[in-house]
Design a protein that fits this description.
about 240 residues; 5-stranded parallel β-sheet; two-stranded antiparallel sheet; 7 strands
């Protein structure tokens, strides 16, 4: 076993340090914010960017263990607010110089709330829209959700809520399709009739720096090129 360190002041001292780190995040931290509707490949893009440029990405959904949607915790283990803040503080220590890539989120990722300074910086950052055809996005959802053994059962429990939100004519339809193995029909319907309208309302009027196709092979190179223009797309710290 390795050496054990004892923190003076114990857990309370540790939490105070984490909270101080959250408050110290610059409100004008240069960020490249990846936006786009569900299934547009934002998480995949972050993973590819991190592989190409280690220390350049903040994956808030990974830290929170939640995809920030009604189905967002399927196959994941959402963490508490203190655990999210601790993971974020640790990740900040691993980061290289900004601009950093981050996925556009609402104020909360699951039950984890993004620190106010970081959320403000996300609103000020360069907003990059990722687009892809419906079929491509549906396939992305299938890879993200159906790779977990318990996914279908957990999804079947949530679908009635989504069906109710979409309208009476959908009651039971998605649940039956899922039971019949028609995952693609479920995914495409959720995108067209629930997630896409929700995203359109949420991001209406947002000023975009760039729009890119996430199903094109040059996506990562295009995003890295934007980052290299850092001074032109976002304020300096």
């Amino acid at each position: 076993e390795g050496p054990v360190a004892v923190l003076k002041g114990g857990y309370n001292s540790y939490r105070a340090g984490v909270m101080a780190r959250m408050v110290a995040i610059p409100h004008d931290l240069p960020l490249i914010v990846l936006r786009g509707s569900t299934g547009a490949g934002k998480t995949r893009a972050l993973a590819a960017l991190e592989e190409a440029l280690p220390g350049s990405t903040l994956d808030l959904e990974g830290l929170a263990q939640h995809r920030s949607s009604i189905l967002g915790d399927i196959g994941m283990s959402p963490v508490s607010q203190p655990a999210f803040e601790s993971a974020l503080a640790a990740r900040l220590e691993e980061m290289e110089e900004p601009p950093w890539f981050i996925e556009g989120e609402s104020r909360k990722v699951g039950d984890s709330q993004i620190p106010s300074p970081l959320f403000e910086a996300m609103g000020k950052g360069a907003q990059v829209q990722l687009d892809a055809p419906l079929e491509w996005r549906a396939a992305t959802l299938g890879r993200e959700y159906l790779s977990f053994p318990q996914a279908r059962g957990e999804m079947a429990e949530r679908l009635p809520f989504l069906e109710a939100r979409m309208g009476r004519e959908w009651n039971g339809r998605l649940t039956r399709w899922l039971s019949d193995g028609k995952w693609r029909e479920v995914a495409e319907t959720l995108l067209e009739h629930y997630y896409d309208p929700l995203y359109s309302r949420h991001d209406a009027g947002r000023l975009l720096t760039e729009t890119l196709r996430s199903d094109h092979p040059g996506l990562v190179e295009s995003l890295i090129s934007l980052r290299e223009q850092g001074a032109a797309i976002a304020p300096t710290v």
